[in-house]
Every structure is written in C-alpha cells, then in structure tokens.
Design goal:
Helices cover 45% and strands 13% of the residues. It is of the alpha/beta class. Helix 6 links the parallel strand 5 and strand 6. It comes from Celeribacter indicus.
Length: 283
C-alpha cells in the first residue's frame, strides 16, 4: 500500500506552474494522499509570462494533472489575508474529504515591494507579509489541528520557511521577520500538539527556481525594457553562483523532503526546521 493511502493533505499556494506547491501536491498524491489545493483567485495581469503563454489555470491545472495520474484532488480558492475565509477553507476541505491528515503551509506574500530599507518600508507592506506568511499558517494550524485531534489519528503539519527564517539580509526585513515567526510557530505548535501525535516541522529552502512573480523583477524589466524572463535568468544565474552545489533548488527538491516529513517514517520528528539550500547556509 502507498505510504499515504487514505490520508488527506491540504496545501496552500498550490497554483504555480513551476511552484513548490504544485510539486508538493504531486509528491503527496503519488504517495497515495488525496489533495486539497488552495490558492488566491488568479489575476492574469500579474501571472508569470510562461504561465500566460501556456494557458495555465492555477490550481485547476494542478488538479487536472493529478487526476490524469489517477489521484484525487479538489480545488478551493482562499485569500489568506482574510481570517474568515481561512476558517471556511478548512471546514470545506473537511466536509469534502471527511478528514485532514496533512497540512502544508506553503503560500507566501509576493516579494518585491518589501525590498527597501526598514526606514522606508510601508506599514501596509509589513502587515501583508505578516498576515500571509505568519498569521495565515497560525490560523490554518489552529483549525486543522482541531480536526486532527477530533479524529484521534495524529497528523502532520509542515511549514515552508526560508533561509531568511534563520538569517536576515538587507532590504528584506518584512520577509525575514515573517519567516522567523514561522519557525517560532513551528516550535511552539510542535510542543502543544505532541500529545496528540501531531508533528509540526518546517522546510527552509534557499533560492528556488519557481518562476513566481516578484514585483522588483517586474519593475526592473520594465525599467530596462527587456523581457521578464531575461531578468529572471540573470537572477537565477547570480543566485546559483553563491551555492556550493552550483545551482539553486528546483521545486521537486523541496517536495521530496515534505514527502518524507508527511510520511510514516517521520513520526518521531517534530519542531525541526530543515535547510534545503545546496550548502549555502548552515544553521
């Protein structure tokens, strides 16, 4: 039997064509889990050019891919800045599948507008990063944990952090603070939920080749009058030069560790934050 047969996984931020959420959804489905995919309603004016060219439809396209492979998937739109929508989301997933065994808090705020000095950072940008990157995982953990506790069969909660969960850098104070907070949530929730056999861990990638939108890259492309893909290619090349293993992560690198932490062999691992960065940061 597949290791996750009979389990249900809820994955946030799962709509990107090259995204970590899609890779995680495919990994967990291939291990036997039914998957609930959620993302914010897609705005085609800010979709990555490659997605637009491919006619990508976000979580609907991911679900179709899973179903073609013989898996079970359902889609749920949710704006993670809205607390009421988060509670409705978790309830809807539980109603659809009858349970939630695995929660993957993968969604993140779009970077770029935060990439300024703390002295120039807008309070609204700061608050948005905390809402999406820290408060939403807290609320999802709260509501999903209640369902896991009621079911009485344990569970897995996996938060997708960042290298900035462990070491801040210049012009990224909102992102770093929100991701540091995610590690605090991981450790505290791990202690609170241990008696219920619910493990809580974090995966902390470095740079990942996801093609996700960056407002800063978009602005740079417009200023230079070049395609966004050219700016992205430069950024990937520059980031790869800083990694001992000579490349940045692919989404599947992250999904592999999530798949392990979601499975039966990781039942005695909790409160941990694992780096996936090719040796760029040891912490």
């Amino acid at each position: 039997m597949a290791p996750l047969e009979g389990k249900v996984a809820l994955i946030t931020g799962a709509g990107g064509m090259k995204g970590v959420g899609r890779a995680i959804a495919l990994e967990l489905s291939r291990q036997g889990a039914a998957v609930a995919l959620t993302d914010v309603a897609r705005d085609h004016t800010v979709a990555p050019p490659l997605e637009m060219a491919a006619g990508w439809k976000g979580i609907e396209s991911v679900a179709a891919e899973i179903r073609r492979e013989g898996g079970r998937a359902a889609c749920f739109q949710c704006d993670l800045t809205e607390r009421e929508q988060i509670e409705v989301l978790v309830g809807s997933v539980a109603n659809e599948f009858g349970r939630i065994d695995i929660l993957v808090n993968n969604a993140r705020a779009i970077i770029g507008r935060d990439q300024v000095s703390v002295a120039d950072l807008d309070a609204e940008v700061w608050e948005r990063f905390l809402k999406i990157n820290t408060t939403a995982p807290f609320l999802l953990t709260k509501y999903a944990a209640r369902i896991m506790i009621e079911k009485g069969e344990g569970g897995r909660i996996i938060n997708i952090g960042s290298d900035l969960s462990k070491q801040a850098r210049r012009f990224a104070v909102a992102y770093a603070a929100s991701k540091f907070g995610l590690i605090g949530l991981t450790q505290g929730a791990a202690l609170d939920l241990a008696e219920h056999r619910i493990t809580v861990n974090a995966v902390c990638p470095g740079s990942v080749n996801t093609d996700r939108l960056s407002y800063a890259e978009q602005a740079r492309a417009e200023a230079e009058g070049v395609p966004l893909e050219m700016i992205r290619s430069r950024a990937v090349e520059a980031a790869a030069a800083q990694v001992p293993m000579g490349r940045i992560a692919e989404s599947e690198d992250i999904a592999g560790l999530v798949g392990f932490l979601a499975g039966p062999q990781a039942g005695f691992i909790t409160g941990q934050a694992y780096n996936v960065n090719g040796g760029q940061l040891f912490h």
